[in-house]
Structure formats: C-alpha cells, structure tokens
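I hope you will forgive my troubling you with a question about protein structure. I am sending you one protein, given as its amino acid sequence and as whole-number tokens for its backbone shapes. Thank you for your consideration; the sequence and its tokens are set out here:
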Amino acid sequence: MDDALGTPAPTVSTVEIGDELTAFDSATGTALTLNRTASDLFALADGQTTVSEAVAVLARAYEVAPAAITEDVAAAVRELRTAGFLVASDI
C-alpha cells in the first residue's frame, strides 16, 4: 500500500480536543475520535503524501523504526477509508 493517503472527505469536519481529534462526517452522521498518532496521520492526508512517506514522518516524530509502524499505519489508512473519512486522490 504505497498510494496517497487521500484527503479528508468533503463532508468531514474536525475539532481538536486536547490530544485528540474528533472528526464528524455530516453525510453519514458518524463521528470518530482519533488519538494523537491517528490525528498526526490524518493531518498528513493532503492528497500528495503517500503511505510510505507518512510512515517515515511518523517514525521520525515518534522515534521508532519505520518497520515497527508500517502495518499499523496501513491499517489505520484502510479503516479511515472504509469509514469514509478519507477519500482517494490521484497523485
């Protein structure tokens, strides 16, 4: 999975509360609370950043080896896409 993370769906709005980010999809009425790490991942979803690039950025930020978080990042991206909070983008 080395395609772009995507972008937040146009119907998604967010608000930061402490170290968490709450995302609300007005199209579905679904809310999702993201912890700090998932919030950092969501912030990288600019339509250009690839999954591998996001892994590298997060690994540096959290001082871990990229291999230690690759599967977790890929799983988080899949979950955010499946839930409709991220939509595909062409890079």
